[in-house]
Amino acid sequence: MDAKKIENIELKYLTVDDFEDLKTATLESYAGVLNSYWKKHHIEDLTSMFPEGQVIIKIDGDIAGCALSLIVDYDSIDDEHTYEDIIGGESFKNHHADGDVLYGIDVFIKPQYRGLRLGRRLYDYRKEVCENLNLKGIVFGGRMPNYHKHKELTPKEYIEKVKRKEIHDPVLNFQISNDFHPVRVLKNYLEGDTASNEYAVLMEWDNIYYTKPRKKASTVKTIVRLGLIQWQMRPYKGLDDLMQQVEYFIDSVAAYRSDFAVFPEFFNAPLMAEFNHLHEPDAIRELAKFTETIINKLKQLSISYNINIISGSMPEVVDDKLYNVGYLCRRDGSFERYEKIHVTPDEAKVWGMQRGNKLKTFETDCGKIGILICYDSEFPELARLLADEGMDILFIPFLTDTQNGYSRVRLCAQARAIENECYVAISGSVGNLPNVNNMDIQYAQSAVFTPCDFSFPSNGIKAEATTNTEMILVADVDLSLLRELHSFGAVKNLKDRRKDFYDVIRVK
C-alpha cells in the first residue's frame, strides 16, 4: 500500500453495521479459510458486552485491521487452557466486566495494508484500554507460524531461538518487539493450527500503572509524550542520506510511544552545501525544491510510526515568493501548514524571506496545539492569540547560532508557558556547516517548559537536553494539570487579564 495515497486513517469502535465488511476483511486476512470469520451474533455479543474492547482501523473507509478482546478473571483460568476455553464456545461466558486482565481473542491486518505498522497501533490501543480500565495486563495465545519448519526443536527451544534472532517468526517477533513476553507454552491451543503444530505461546504485557484498590475508566488522553529531536548539522551525501537520519530519529522517539516528534527550524539546511557556489538567495531557493519531497516522506512516516510529526521548518516558494514554513503531519494521515510570521532581519536581508500570514491552533488526538517558528516566540501577542483558542502545548522549532540568540528563544518560551498556562517545547539544531554560507554554526539546548505552580516543577523546567549535543529528549506532560491550573492555580494568568483595560486582537 502506497502511504502517499492514504487520505484518512481512523481507529473506531466496531459495530454490528460493520459485519459484512468485517467478514470480507477477515476472509482476505486468513487467506479465504472457511469459517475463519466471526458470525453476526458473535459481533452483536462482543460489541454489547465490551464495546471498547472491539476496534477496527479504517483507511479511507475500508476496514484495514481489527482487534477483539475480552476481560477475564485471570486467577480462574487454567494454566493449560485452550482458545475454546477462553471464548466459551458461542457465549463468551468467560468475559467478566469486573475481571482483571484483558485477553486478546483476535487481531489481524489485511494483506494490502501490512507494512504500515497498523498492528502496533492496535496493540498500543489495547495498552491504553488496559491502563484506562486499570487492568493488570494483557494476555493472549500467540501462534508460532514457522514452528512446523523446525519440528526437531521443542517449543521452548524454538521460542528461545526466536528471542535470540536465530529464527524469524513474524508473529512472535512482532509481539516481543511490542513489549510482550512469553509466559508458557500452551499445547493443543487452537485446533487445526498445523503451522504451529497446535502449540501457542501465552504472551503477556504488564500494566505498570495498575493499582489494586480501584478501577478507573477514562476515555480522554491526558498524558502526552513529547519527543524532541536535537538535530546535528553535518554534511550529507544527498536527500536520501538526510531522510535516513530523519527516519532513524522518528523511529527512536516512536519506540518510546511518543505522541509527537519535533524537528528544528531549517533542519534540512545541510542539503544547501551542494549550492554553496551560488549567491545565498539562489542557494536557498534551490533548497526549497526539496521541501515537497521531504513533506511527502514525513506524511508517510507519521502513518508508519503512528506519531504526529512537526516538521520544524523549511524554505518554500509560493507565487515566486520565499517563505519559512513547516507542516504538522498527523498520524491519521491528515496534515496542515504553518508559516513564520516574523522573519529575522538576516533572513530578509540575505535570503529575501517574506513574512507569513497564517496563525492558528491545530486539533490533534493529544489536545490543541500551536506552533511558532523561532523568532515568532519573541512576540507574546502570537502565543496569546493561540491561548485564546485553547492551546494546550506550544511547539517552537528554532535555529540559533549564538548563545545570545538561544537565550532570547529560551527565556521567551518560558515566559509564554507562564503567561498562557500551557506547556512549551523548543527543539533546535547543534553542530556546524562549514560549507553552507549564512548557516555556519548552531547553538541549542532543547527543552520542555511548564507553568510555575505547585503541580509543576518549581523552576518551570520539565526536561532539558544536554547543550550542543545530538540527542532526543522525551518528556511526558499532563494536560489535566492545565485544567486544574486554569481554575485553581495560585495565580490565574489567563482569567486575571484586564480585558476591560486592554486586549490582543487580530487585524482582519
What's the helix and strand layout?
Blueprint (H helix, E strand, L loop, with lengths): L8 E5 L5 H11 L10 H10 L5 E5 L2 E11 L10 H5 L13 E9 L8 H15 L4 E6 L12 H9 L6 H8 L3 E6 L13 E7 L16 E11 L5 H17 L4 E3 L17 H9 L2 H14 L3 E3 L3 E5 L2 E9 L5 E5 L5 H7 L10 E3 L2 E5 L8 H9 L4 E5 L5 H17 L3 E5 L1 E4 L8 E2 L4 E3 L11 E4 L6 E8 H10 L20
Parallel strand pairs: 4-5, 8-9, 8-18, 9-10, 15-16, 16-17
Antiparallel strand pairs: 1-2, 2-3, 3-4, 5-7, 6-7, 8-22, 10-12, 11-12, 12-13, 14-15, 17-20, 18-19, 20-21
Keywords: Hydrolase
GO molecular function, one term: hydrolase activity
Protein name: Bifunctional GNAT family N-acetyltransferase/carbon-nitrogen hydrolase family protein
Report what the structure shows.
- Mean pLDDT is 93; it is low at 214-220.
- The chain is built from 13 helices and 22 strands.
- Strand 2 (55-59) and strand 3 (62-72) form a beta hairpin.
- It has 508 residues and is α+β, with helices and mostly antiparallel strands.
- It has helices at residues 19-29, 40-49, 83-87, 118-132, 155-163, 170-177, 239-255, 280-288, 291-304, 345-351, 380-388, 403-419, 479-488; strands spanning 9-13, 55-59, 62-72, 101-109, 137-142, 181-186, 200-206, 223-233, 260-262, 308-310, 314-318, 321-329, 335-339, 362-364, 367-371, 393-397, 423-427, 429-432, 441-442, 447-449, 461-464, 471-478.
- Strands 8, 9, 10, 11, 12, 13, 18, 19 and 22 form a 9-stranded mixed β-sheet that branches.
